[in-house]
Design goal:
4 copies of one chain form a homotetramer. The first copy, chain A, has helices at residues 14-23, 35-47, 61-72, 86-89, 94-97, 114-126, 153-165, 177-181, 190-196, 226-232, 241-251, 255-276, 296-303, 331-342; strands at 2-3, 54-58, 77-82, 102-105, 135-142, 170-173, 199-203, 213-217, 289-290, 293-295, 306-307, 309-315, 318-324. Chain A is of the alpha/beta class. The first copy, chain A, has 2 domains: 2-6 and 256-342, Aspartate Aminotransferase, domain 1 (Alpha-Beta Complex); 14-254, Aspartate Aminotransferase, domain 2, CATH 3.40.640. In chain A, strands 2-8-7-6-5-3-4 form a 7-stranded mixed sheet, with helices on both faces. In chain A, strand 12 and strand 13 (318-324) form a beta hairpin. The longest helix of chain A has 22 residues, at 255-276. Chain A is globular. The two termini of chain A are 23 Å apart. At the B-C interface, strand 1, helix 1, helix 3 and helix 10 of B face strand 1, helix 1, helix 3 and helix 10 of C. Chains A, B, C, D: Belongs to the threonine aldolase family.
Chain lengths: 346, 346, 346, 346
C-alpha cells in the first residue's frame, strides 16, 4: 500500500537522521537550553529577519496551538478562527479545555477575510451587553489552510491591518508553512509573515522532522513567561536538543525550502492528473494537499493501492478525498498514481 | 418610563415578600439544610411526580447552567445546543471556562429537532478519527426558548427518545419555565418534563422570586456529589433558606402557575396589538416575550414611553425588538402600550 | 436551640428589610446598572476615600474570591495564602478549578507575615528552573482571618510594602471586614485598607445583608473588563438592585459599623466568660468569633442549648469549638450563655 | 565538563537508534495505530502479566501525569501526593491548570504511607461540611521517588489495600521506573505493580529512549476514551510509530532492565565513594540518584569537572546536591569522579 493519507507517514529526512546520529552521544543540558537550540533560534531569526523575536521549540501542533492561544487570551476572551480551522474541529476541544471559546467565521476554502474579522469585532463592541458575550482576543489563521489554500501577501496585509486596528494579535498556524511558502503563486516570505503576524509557528513534523514546531513570537507584549506556559502544557521536551538539532538542519542551509518544494511538485502532478481526467477539485490548492471530487467507485478502485483520507460526501455517488504529498513522497509512487488515474475507466 | 425590556425589572411577588418578612428573624442552619428548603424540595418533587428526584437551589441562570453542565461532562465532551442557546451566546463563555465546547446546531426559532441531535451524534461516532473531535456528551435545550417558542409534548418525547438512544442526557434550561407551561397551546406538565428530561431547572428569578433557580435531577447517574459542584462554582448560598422560602411560597399553593399565566396574558395582548396593526413577528411566541418586526421610526416612537430590547436589524429601516412581560407587569401599562400601538401613525 | 454556629443564621437587618419592601415595585434596569447600585458605589468610594476605585457587587464569598483571583492571575501564576485561608481549605477547590494553584504559607493564627511573602517570592525567582514551578502572582489575606485575628496597621503596611516591592498585588478577603474594623484594638480604617491593598471586598452576607459582597478595586491595572469576569463566573445578579439597596442602607449612615460593633461586644462577653471560667482560647480573637478549648463533656453540655461549630480535636478529652456572634445576635441569648458558662460544674 | 546533572543528557541507546534508522523510510499510519506500537503494547502487556491492560504512549512526563490525572478526577476531586511529588512542585501547576487540587501529604524521603492516605481520606468524609472541601479522588506516588527512594512490595501492597478500601485509584509515576526495578534490594516486578496499581507508566525518556512514556491502564474503569484525553492534552504524537519503535526495542529482549541495572551500578559507585569519604547522604537512595550533603567548597571543587543539581541548603556551609547516573553514563567518567572524591582534601 502506498500512503497519501497524510504528510507524516515516514520518519525524518536523511540529513536530520545523520545529525541525530552524529550528536547522539553529546551531553547537553535539558529543556532547550543547549547549543543546538541556540543555533536553530539564530537561523530562524535570521530567516525571518526578526532579530528580536523569541523562538521556542515544541513537539506537536495541538500542543503548540493550545500553548500560544492560552498564553495570550484573558479568561473571558476567545480566539477568532475560520470554522474550518484545526483548533475548531480537530483538536478535541483543546482550546476550550484551557477555558476559551473559538469564535468561528464561515469559510468555504479555509481562509478568512479582514472584513469578517472587523465585522465580528465591531459587533461585539457595539453590543450594549458586550460583557455577556465572549470578547474577541486573538485571530487565528492557518497557512496553508486545512484545505491547502494560501493567503496572498495582499490578503495577509489586509488581515494584519484590521487586527492592529482592532487591537487583536494575529497568529498563524504554520504546521505546513513550508508547503505554503513553496505553493505555486505564493508571494509571502518568512520575513513578511514575521512583519505581519504577532506570533506564528514553522512546522517541522510534517516537513522533514521526526517532530517539532518552532514558535516565533514577534510582538514583545506576547513574549513574557512563555516558557512557563510550555512547561505547564506539557510541551517542554526534556531532551530539547532534539528539536534544536532538527531545526538547525532544516534552516542552516535551505533544506526546509528545498524539501517543501519537492512535496508541492508531487502534489501538482497529482492535481494535474485528476484535472486532466475531468474531475473537479473541492478546493483550489497549490500546496501539498489535493481534494478531488470523485465517484465512489473510483475511490474504491484507487484505495486498492493508495491510502488517502476521506474528506466529505458530496452526493449519493460522489465524495471528496484528500491526497497528501510530503518531503518524503517518492516520485515513482506519484508517477504510478498518475498513471493509474489516467487509466481509470470512467 | 415603563419597562418591558426584560422579565426581572421588579423585586419579588408580595406573597414572597410577606414570607421573607415573617421568617426574617428565624435562626436556621446554612447552605440549604434548613426546613424551608426541605419543604420546597417536597413541593417540587410532588409537582414533578418525581419522588426520587434530587432538588437543589441556586441563585442565577448562568451559574446554574455552568454547574449542571460541568457536573455531567467528561473533559473531552461537549454540550449540544441550538446556536441561539443562552449558553452559546450570552454567558461570556462560562461553559468553555469550565473546559467544554458548545456543539451548536442551527436553529431559526430557538428549538432543535431530534433528527439534528441524531445526525450530529452519528457523525461523531462514524468519524474514524473521532478522538480528534469533541465527543457529544449532553443535550441542552431551553423551554421556552430565548425566542419565546416552546416544545410540544410530541417534540420533547422525540428528543428524549433520541437522547436515550444516543446515551446523551437531556437537560432543560427552564429559566422561564413557568411562562412556557402557561404559554398558549402548551401540552407539557412538570411531570412530563421530569419523565422526559434527565435534569432541568425551574426558574424563579424571572417568575416571582427575588432570585433563585430550582434544579431537579431525575436521572440517578447525575445525582452524585452535586453539592460539591454547587460549592465550587460559587452557587451555594450561605443563607440558603432564602431560596427555600421563595420556592416554598411559589409551589405550596400554585402561585408559580398563576403568576406565569398572568404574564402570558399580558404578552398576548401586546402580540395581538402588533399583529392587528399589521406588523409581522420574528418568532411565533405564545409565551411572555414578543418579537415584532418594526420600522425604526416606530421603535423610536415607542421608546419614548416604553423600554424594550433591541434584538436585530432586519434591513435599513426595520428592526426586531423584544417586549417582555412578567408576573409583575401591570395590566394598565399593557393597556396603555396597546393603545399607543393601535394609535401609531404608519 | 440558640445558634452560635456561624454569622449567617438570620435574614437581614430590619432597615434593609424596610428598604427592600419600599423599593420592591420599582422598575430598574438589570445587572447592577440601576440607581441604587450607583448610590451604593458612591457611599463606598467615599468611605474608602478612593474616588477612583471601581466598586462591583457580587452575591457570595467563594464566588467573589474566585472571580477576583482568576481575573488577576496569568495561567501559570498562583495565589499566595495562609494555609488556613478560606480559599485553600473551604471552597472545594474553586481556585484550582479556574486553573490556579494556591501557594500556601504556614500560619498558626490565620495571618501571614511580610517576611514570609518575601521569602517565598525570592525562592521562586532564585530557582534556576523557576519556569518549572508556579509563579507567585498575588497575595491573598483575610481580615479578620478565619481564626478571628486581625492585622494591625503596621502589619498591613509591611505586607503592602513587600507586595509592591515584589510586584505582587495584595488582595483582602473582607467577608467579615466590619467585625474586623470593630474588633478591640483595631487601628485600620477602610481608607487605610484602600491605600494599602490593590483590591478587597466588604462583606455583607455576614454583616446585616441577606447576601452580598462589595468588591473595591483600587489598582487601575486590575480594573479592566471585570464585569466580563463576574458574568462568566455566574456572579452577575439579574436584579442587581438588590445588592445596591442593601449596601446603600449599610453605608449611607454608618449602619455597617454600628451593627459590627454590636457583634463584637457580644463576642467579647462570651470570650470573657470562658476566660474567667479558666478556659484557654485557641486564638486570641477580638472580633466576632471565639475559639475556646473545652473539655468534651463541657461541649456536650453546652450543645444541649447552643449550636456552635466543631473546630478541631486537641487531645483525647478536649476540643476547640467556635462560637460566632453577628449583627443579629440577641443580648439575652448571650447573657444566658454567659450564665450557663459561669455555672458549669468543672 | 562531565554531566551528572540529570538522566537525560544524551540522545538514545544505540539499539534504538539503529531501529530508528532501519525503519525511517517505512510508511505507517499515524497516532499510534501502527504495527510498532502494536508490538510494543504486546511486549509491555506480557511483561506486566496484564493481558487486558490498555497501553498508550505519550511523549513526556508532565504531559503524562496531567493526562492521566485529568482523565480520572471529577471536577471537585483532587489528587493525593507527597509534598515532594513532581506534580506538586515541578510541573508549573499543570494539574491545577486542569482544574484539580493536589492534596499534599508530608514526606521526608519522597514516599507516603498507607496510614497517611487513610487518615486524609477519613478526615474528608468525617467532616460534616465535606462538600466545602476538595474530595480525594486519586493517589499519586512516584517510584523511585524524586529522592531516589523506592517502595517495597509490602509497602505497595499496604498502599494498594488502603486505596481499594477507600475507593481511590492508585497511580504510579514511573518516569524512572527501570531504575527503581534495578535498585538494590528492590522486590517489586512490573507484574506486581500492574496488580497493585490501577494505572502507572514506564518511563522511556530517562531510560534509553529519545523520549516517551508508556502508560499502562489496568483498571477497566479508567480505560474509557483515554485517547480523547491524550489528543486534547497535546500528547498524541503524529508519528506515533517513533514511540512504538522505541518501546519495542526496550522491551522485546530485556534491554530496559539491562540498561537500568547499569545506571544503578554507576550510582552505587558514586554513593560508596561519598560515604567512604565520610559524607552523609540526604536520602537513602539505592537507585540512580545520589544526594550527598557536602561542604560548599567541596561542591565548588567538584563543579569544576562535573555538573550536578543543587538540591537544597543545609546550613551556612553545607548543601545537598544531586548526582544522576543513567543508561548512558560512562564507567570511566564515574571512575574519574570516584577518584576525585577520594582525593578530596577535607
Amino acid at each position: 500500500m502506498i500512503r497519501f493519507e497524510n504528510d507524516y507517514t515516514e520518519g525524518t529526512h536523511k540529513q536530520i537522521l545523520k545529525r541525530l546520529i552524529e550528536t547522539n552521544e553529546e551531553q547537553t543540558p535539558g529543556y532547550g537550553t543547549d547549543e543546538h537550540c541556540k543555533n536553530a533560534r539564530a537561523y530562524i531569526r535570521s530567516e525571518c529577519d526578526a532579530e528580536n523575536a523569541d523562538v521556542h521549540f515544541l513537539v506537536g501542533g495541538t500542543q503548540t496551538n493550545t500553548t500560544i492561544i492560552a498564553s495570550i487570551l484573558r479568561p473571558y476572551q476567545g480566539v477568532i478562527s475560520a470554522i474550518t480551522g484545526h483548533i475548531e474541529g480537530h483538536e478535541t476541544g483543546a482550546i476550550e479545555a484551557t477555558g476559551h471559546k473559538v469564535l468561528t467565521l464561515p469559510s468555504d476554502d479555509g481562509k478568512i477575510q479582514a472584513a469578517q474579522v472587523k465585522e465580528l469585532n465591531d459587533a461585539h463592541w457595539n453590543d450594549d451587553a458586550h460583557e455577556h458575550t465572549v470578547q474577541p482576543g486573538l485571530v487565528y489563521i492557518s497557512n496553508p489552510t486545512e484545505n491547502g489554500t494560501t493567503y496572498s501577501k495582499a490578503e495577509l496585509e489586509e488581515l494584519s491591518n484590521v487586527c492592529r486596528e482592532c487591537n487583536l494579535p494575529l497568529m498563524m498556524d504554520g504546521a505546513r508553512l513550508g508547503y505554503g511558502l513553496a505553493s505555486i503563486g505564493n508571494d509571502l516570505s518568512l520575513a513578511d509573515i514575521a512583519k505581519l503576524c504577532d506570533v506564528f509557528y514553522i512546522g517541522g513534523t510534517k516537513i522533514g522532522a521526526l517532530f517539532g514546531e518552532a514558535v516565533v513570537i514577534v510582538n514583545d507584549d506576547l513574549k513574557k513567561d512563555f516558557r512557563y506556559m510550555i512547561k505547564q502544557k506539557g510541551g517542554l521536551l526534556a531532551k530539547g536538543r532534539l528539536l534544536g538539532i532538527q531545526f538547525e538542519t532544516l534552516f542552516e542551509d535551505g533544506l526546509y525550502y528545498e524539501i517543501s518544494k519537492h512535496a508541492v511538485e508531487m502534489s501538482i502532478m497529482i492535481r494535474d492528473a485528476f484535472v486532466e481526467k475531468g474531475f473537479s477539485l473541492r478546493y483550489d490548492s497549490m500546496s501539498n494537499q489535493q481534494f478531488p471530487i470523485l465517484p465512489d467507485d473510483v475511490i474504491m478502485e484507487l484505495n486498492k493501492k493508495y491510502t488517502n483520507s476521506f474528506w466529505e460526501k458530496v452526493d449519493d455517488t460522489h465524495s471528496v478525498v484528500r491526497f497528501c504529498t510530503s518531503w518524503a513522497t517518492k516520485k515513482e509512487h506519484v508517477e504510478m498514481l498518475v498513471e493509474d488515474i489516467t487509466a481509470l475507466d470512467i
